[in-house]
DNA sequence: ATGTAC
């Protein structure tokens, strides 16, 4: 059975596409991007549609690609009564997310110092595979980060109280249960608090290249030629281990509660069971850890900027989570209901009618931060109420890979990737040349095309485009 | 994404 175009940028996976689908699937792509969605990703959208208690549609954002069980770029919401929770719908890097700091500096004043600045940031913020921090958190501090996330980080002197207003969930999600975090996850997570990690995670110095919506840009504090800093990272080994450990528990729960799943990777538990509660409690720990992590990294970034540009300001514009399950109220068939919304490689994009958006952005909607791949533009958008009707208030999270890591390694070398970026005027620091090859700009879809879909659907409005000047990676 | 293997 074929998927069907039902509107511009909307394709439907009909209920008959595979047995057991409870709702149709929806893939939000342009005709051009449709060609880039592999058949396996469509199958995953259909698989998710078979899970108990799913409401609306099993959805894939324009940057969707194959993931563990659920597609990356997947959004699925489940009823509190009769629904499930699944680690595959959240991802291994729990609360991987993006934070944007806006400065009061002009690019022309920063450009001459870019290499010095980047060296200092590379040193101040530990990065790389298995990197450990400057922080040396104690066991007790680790628990506090699980329980209170960025709120705890502020108490420890990282960032300021007002930063919390500009984080999703104020940087601290309720419901953490540290007793459900195993010894191994704690052991991996403790030394990694305050580290960037590897892969597509980065810290980037950017310039505001274009303003699309002057009114919203002004309210977000953005202007052309401005320096911004974007931080993309998550919960490191802690979140990964929590996901691994609970997948094991939930695979057994699938048998225990007799859930019929078309793919073992969709391991899940019915909401209200101990297994579901335990995963949720542990997932919140990792989510809070990630907010603390980004808070600490932002603090060190501010220290470096203060060293080279004394008195300069780096204000937090916003911090979004793009790998998390959340309890949210949504209108389902005209009635308000509490749902477990899974966003995996998908960003929340709440519009002005939601109370969750920061008071400073009242009447606008939340900032939606879409990082580009290394060397390509990132975007700031503003969530719209239409997203509530179409996607439970969700948008894409990035550009999405078009080539595997191994394929990239066969095709590029780190040295040539770095040289090409330098030719484009982008400075790069990295702990591993191989990683630069795996993250070459060519292995990702063009982020602008993905953003166009979201903008044209009315899910989120384009506000500004940011281009990289210098990037620090694992 | 990730101590890329229990």
TrEMBL record:
<keyword id="KW-0547">Nucleotide-binding</keyword>
<feature type="binding site">
    <location>
        <position position="473"/>
    </location>
    <ligand>
        <name>GMP</name>
    </ligand>
</feature>
<dbReference type="GO" id="GO:0046872">
    <property type="term" value="F:metal ion binding"/>
</dbReference>
<feature type="binding site">
    <location>
        <begin position="397"/>
        <end position="400"/>
    </location>
    <ligand>
        <name>GMP</name>
    </ligand>
</feature>
<dbReference type="InterPro" id="IPR001233">
    <property type="entry name" value="RtcB"/>
</dbReference>
<feature type="binding site">
    <location>
        <begin position="371"/>
        <end position="374"/>
    </location>
    <ligand>
        <name>GMP</name>
    </ligand>
</feature>
<feature type="binding site">
    <location>
        <position position="378"/>
    </location>
    <ligand>
        <name>GMP</name>
    </ligand>
</feature>
<comment type="function">
    <text>Essential for tRNA splicing and maturation. Acts by directly joining spliced tRNA halves to mature-sized tRNAs. Joins RNA with 2',3'-cyclic-phosphate or 3'-phosphate ends to RNA with 5'-hydroxy ends.</text>
</comment>
<feature type="binding site">
    <location>
        <position position="232"/>
    </location>
    <ligand>
        <name>Mn(2+) 2</name>
    </ligand>
</feature>
<keyword id="KW-0479">Metal-binding</keyword>
<dbReference type="GO" id="GO:0006388">
    <property type="term" value="P:tRNA splicing, via endonucleolytic cleavage and ligation"/>
</dbReference>
<dbReference type="Pfam" id="PF01139">
    <property type="entry name" value="RtcB"/>
</dbReference>
<feature type="binding site">
    <location>
        <begin position="200"/>
        <end position="204"/>
    </location>
    <ligand>
        <name>GMP</name>
    </ligand>
</feature>
<comment type="similarity">
    <text>Belongs to the RtcB family.</text>
</comment>
<comment type="subunit">
    <text>Monomer.</text>
</comment>
<keyword id="KW-0464">Manganese</keyword>
<dbReference type="InterPro" id="IPR036025">
    <property type="entry name" value="RtcB-like_sf"/>
</dbReference>
<dbReference type="GO" id="GO:0170057">
    <property type="term" value="F:RNA ligase (GTP) activity"/>
</dbReference>
<protein>
    <recommendedName>
        <fullName>tRNA-splicing ligase RtcB</fullName>
        <ecNumber>6.5.1.-</ecNumber>
    </recommendedName>
</protein>
<keyword id="KW-0436">Ligase</keyword>
<feature type="binding site">
    <location>
        <position position="322"/>
    </location>
    <ligand>
        <name>Mn(2+) 2</name>
    </ligand>
</feature>
<feature type="active site" description="GMP-histidine intermediate">
    <location>
        <position position="397"/>
    </location>
</feature>
<dbReference type="GO" id="GO:0003972">
    <property type="term" value="F:RNA ligase (ATP) activity"/>
</dbReference>
<dbReference type="GO" id="GO:0005525">
    <property type="term" value="F:GTP binding"/>
</dbReference>
<feature type="binding site">
    <location>
        <position position="93"/>
    </location>
    <ligand>
        <name>Mn(2+) 1</name>
    </ligand>
</feature>
<feature type="binding site">
    <location>
        <begin position="322"/>
        <end position="323"/>
    </location>
    <ligand>
        <name>GMP</name>
    </ligand>
</feature>
<keyword id="KW-0342">GTP-binding</keyword>
<feature type="binding site">
    <location>
        <position position="201"/>
    </location>
    <ligand>
        <name>Mn(2+) 1</name>
    </ligand>
</feature>
């Amino acid at each position: 059975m074929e998927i069907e175009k039902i509107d511009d940028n909307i394709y439907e996976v009909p209920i008959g596409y595979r047995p057991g689908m409870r709702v149709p699937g929806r893939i939000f792509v342009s005709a051009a991007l449709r060609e880039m969605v592999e058949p396996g990703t469509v199958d995953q959208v259909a698989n998710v549609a078979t899970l108990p208690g799913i409401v609306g549609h099993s959805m894939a954002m324009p940057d969707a690609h194959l993931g563990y069980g659920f597609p990356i770029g997947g959004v699925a919401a489940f009823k509190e009564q009769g629904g499930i929770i699944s680690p595959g719908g959240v991802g291994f890097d729990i609360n991987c997310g993006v934070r944007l700091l806006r400065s009061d500096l002009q690019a022309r004043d920063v450009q001459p110092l870019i290499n010095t600045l980047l060296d200092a940031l590379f040193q101040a913020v530990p990065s790389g595979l298995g990197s450990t921090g400057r922080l040396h958190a104690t066991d007790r501090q680790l628990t506090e980060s699980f329980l209170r996330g960025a709120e705890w980080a502020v108490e420890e002197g990282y960032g300021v109280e007002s930063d919390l207003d500009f984080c999703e969930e104020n940087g601290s999600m309720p419901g953490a249960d540290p007793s459900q975090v195993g010894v191994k996850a704690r052991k991996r997570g403790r030394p990694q608090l305050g580290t960037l990690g590897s892969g597509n995670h980065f810290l980037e110095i950017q310039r505001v290249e274009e303003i699309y919506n002057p009114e919203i840009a002004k309210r977000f504090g953005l202007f052309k030629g401005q320096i911004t800093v974007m931080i993309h990272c998550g919960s490191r080994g802690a979140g990964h281990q929590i996901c691994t450990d609970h997948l094991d528990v939930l695979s057994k729960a699938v048998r225990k509660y007799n859930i019929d799943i078309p793919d073992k990777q969709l391991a899940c538990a019915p909401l209200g069971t101990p297994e579901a509660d335990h995963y949720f409690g542990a997932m919140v720990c990792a989510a809070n850890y990630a907010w603390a992590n980004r808070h600490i990294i932002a603090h060190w970034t501010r220290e470096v900027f203060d060293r080279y540009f004394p008195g300069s300001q780096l204000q937090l514009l916003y911090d979004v989570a793009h790998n998390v399950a959340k309890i949210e109220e949504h209108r389902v068939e005209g009635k308000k209901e509490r749902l477990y919304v899974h966003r995996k490689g998908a960003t929340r994009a709440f519009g002005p009618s939601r109370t969750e958006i920061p008071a400073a952005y009242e009447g606008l909607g939340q900032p939606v931060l879409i990082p580009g791949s290394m060397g390509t533009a990132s975007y700031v958008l503003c969530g719209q109420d239409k997203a509530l009707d179409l996607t439970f208030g969700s948008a894409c999270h990035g550009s999405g890979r078009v080539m595997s890591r191994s394929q990239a390694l066969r095709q590029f070398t780190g040295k040539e990737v770095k040289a090409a970026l330098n030719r484009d005027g982008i400075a790069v620091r990295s702990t591993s040349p191989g990683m630069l090859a795996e993250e070459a700009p060519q292995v990702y879809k063009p982020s602008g095309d993905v953003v166009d879909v979201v903008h044209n659907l009315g899910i989120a409005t384009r506000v500004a485009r940011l281009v990289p000047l210098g990037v620090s990676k694992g």
